[in-house]
Amino acid sequence: MAKISFIGLGNMGTPMARNLLKAGHELTVFDISVTAMDKLVADGARKAQSAAKSISNADYVISMLPAGRHVKQLYLGDDQLLETASQEGTAIFIDSSTIEADVSQDIERVARAKGISFVDAPVSGGVGGAISGTLAFMVGGSKKDFDLVKPVLETMGRNIFHAGESGAGQIAKACNNMLLGILMAGTSETLNMGIRNGLDPGVLSQIMKKSSGGNWVLEAYNPVPGIMNGVPSSNNYQGGFQVNLMHKDLGLAMELSQKSVSPTPLGSQASSLYALHKSKGYGSLDFSSIYELYNESDVDK
Ligand code: NAD
Fold first, then answer.
1. HSE on the CB side for 293, CA within 13 Å?
2. Residue 188: which CATH number?
3. Does 116 lie in the same domain as 191?
4. Which of 143, 165, 187 is the C-terminal boundary of a domain?
5. Among 78, 172, 184, 278, who pairs with 138 as Cys (CB 3.0-4.6 Å)?
6. Are residues 119 and 221 in the same domain?
7. How far is CA 55 from CA 58, 80, 133, 166, in A?
8. How far apart are the first and last CA of the chain?
9. Among the three residues 165, 182, 212, which one is the final residue of a domain in this structure?
């Protein structure tokens, strides 16, 4: 079993770290929130006084932080993780946060110059997937590093993909979430039009699921309250994947589109729609609440 340091114990990091413990790995954790660390200590992890201290003797270091600026600070800024690692030894670094591909690539370049391996490995599957250990990991890095990290990622996920070289995992994640944002907005728009023209949304959903408009949103995440059990729309849009995170991810996709001069008119519309929804105070609701932007009913914030 491996010695693993896990940094960032939020909604995703906590269940991911728990699955590593369940698999028998020796875990040291760090988070700026002591409460978050204490929960993992109760499950058998050791807590460290700082990020740098958490990586001592680690075979693998996994980070799961909110955004690029946190990850940059951890590896290259005040926390000095790469500097500490270059003095300490041979850990391999896995960043599973969803961040800008160029930030991942900058960190990987500095790591490589110090003889350290760093891969980007963002995830899809949400908090549910993190709890059940069924996440999809999209890994950017060399084939050799991919082969090294795959067994560890398999204790937290079901589908582990090698997307390509450094940064490719982040690019794949931005592509996936741009399509998801478009699908959710398009499905919400369509269902709302059907309802306003007198259709039962449950019947319309069944029809489209089995017709050429069928998609993952209709199959697994219907945005209209009361159509599907166990999804955020049937729980006042609580839980699930926040509008704030979808807004962030669409911003990452728009940066990629700008940089590569890729036309993304639909992605850009989706990005504006989520910005509007967030600006109305719905940032902490699940992203399927975009349906309420069309429906304009008063959902609780
Ligand atoms: P979160 O905000 O719940 O957790 C982030 C954690 O990082 C917090 O516990 C915070 O205290 C900690 N943290 C922040 N700065 C730190 C630092 N410098 N050192 C140590 N700890 C620090 O976020 P989350 O929902 O767990 O998401 C994490 C990442 O996963 C994000 O990049 C997000 O986009 C991505 N993601 C989230 C979901 C989801 O459904 N929540 C799904 C897929 C991907």
1. 27
2. 1.10.1040.10
3. no
4. 165
5. 172
6. no
7. 5, 11, 23, 22
8. 44
9. 165
CB 7 near ligand 1, within 6 Å: yes
46-90 residue pLDDT tens: 999 999 999 988 999 999 999 999 999 999 998 789 888 877 766
Q: pLDDT for 169-190, tens place per residue? A: 999 999 999 999 999 999 999 9
C-alpha distances (whole Å) from 200 to each of 45, 234, 239 are: 50, 16, 26
Would you say how long the chain is, in residues?
Answer: 301
Note down the domain range covering 150: 3-165
Q: Is 155 helix (H, G, I), strand (E, B) or coil?
A: coil
Q: Is residue 64 in contact with ligand 1, taking CB distance under 6 Å?
A: yes
Residues 219 and 248 in one domain: yes
Nearest-angstrom CA–CA distance, 78 and 73: 6
Residue with tokens 């114990």: 9
Residues 6+ apart with CB under 8 A from 87: none
Ligand 1 pocket test, pick from 5, 11, 19 with the greatest ligand atom count within 8 Å of Cβ, gives 11
Residue 80, CA distances (Å) to 51, 53, 76, 84, 225 in order: 9, 11, 5, 6, 47
Residue 291 in any domain: the answer is: yes
For ligand 1, atom 31, the nearest C-alpha belongs to 66
Separation between Cα atoms, residue 123 and residue 145, nearest integer Å:
17
CA separation, residue 84 to residues 50, 69, 94, 146, 222 (Å): 12, 19, 16, 23, 47
Are 6 and 146 contacting, i.e. CB atoms less than 8 angstroms apart?
no
Q: Catalytic one among 47, 173, 248, 278? A: 173
DSSP conformational letter for 108:
H
Q: Is 173 a catalytic residue?
A: yes
**Ligand 1 contact, 31 CB (< 6 A):** yes
